[in-house]
Amino acid sequence: MITFITKTFQELTNKELYQLLQLRSEVFVVEQNCVFLDMDDKDEASYHVLGFYQNKLVAYTRLVPKDVIYDVASIGRVVTHSSVRKFGFGKQLMEYSISETRQKLNAQEILIGAQLYLHAFYTSLGFIQEGDVYLEDNIEHIKMRLS
Fold first, then answer.
1. In terms of CATH architecture, what is 3-146?
2. What is this structure's pTM?
3. Where are the domains positioned within the chain?
4. b or e along 61-97 (b: 16 or more beta carbons within 10 Å of the residue's beta carbon)?
5. In what order do the strands lie in the sheet with 56-64?
6. DSSP string for residues in the chain
7. Is the Cβ–Cβ distance between 145 and 128 less than 8 Å?
8. Which residues have C-beta within 8 Å of that of residue 13, sequence separation ≥ 6?
9. Which residues pair with 63 in a beta bridge?
10. pLDDT tens across the length of the chain (147 residues)
């Protein structure tokens, strides 16, 4: 069973911050072979959802208030460790993150910049594609909205 907690940037311990940055780097930089600056000055304004399994951080999202990236709240940096993807933690992570975004950020709508290959996954959660495919860090993305 996975356990989720949500913290502001200021509430994160040094260890939690290290673990979340390590997980984001393992997946977004190393696994996806994408060189980009992950630390983008949006972490301090955001809530951070941490998912622990067997005392290890294996899942994470960043809940971003409106007007930081988009004109509505957003969920980003969605990541699960490769060792736990077979357990369905990604869906649990997103369901929890949607609920927390609605509660903590008082969000009626949520906008995400999703990697294109995850279109069906996000559609299953109620997100609807907006606009055309675009490249971000040489990876195809689409904007998707949940109302």
1. 3-Layer(aba) Sandwich (3.40)
2. 0.88
3. 3-146
4. bbbbbbeebbebbbbbbbbbbeebeeeebbebbbebb
5. 3-8, 47-53, 56-64, 73-80, 110-115, 139-146, 128-136
6. --EEEEEETTT--HHHHHHHHHHHIIIIIIITT-------S-STTSEEEEEEETTEEEEEEEEE-TTTSSSSEEEEEEEE-GGGGGGTHHHHHHHHHHHHHHHHS--S-EEEEEEGGGHHHHHHTT-EEEEEEEEETTEEEEEEEE-
7. yes
8. none
9. 47, 75
10. 999 999 999 999 999 999 988 988 887 766 666 665 567 889 889 999 999 999 999 999 999 999 998 899 999 889 999 889 889 899 999 999 999 999 999 999 999 999 888 899 999 999 999 989 988 777 788 999 998
Amino acid at 143: K
Do residues 128 and 110 lie in contact, with contact meaning Cβ atoms separated by under 8 Å? no
Which tokens go with 35? 């060189």
- Amino acid making up residue 62: R
Assigned token pair, 45 = 């304004």
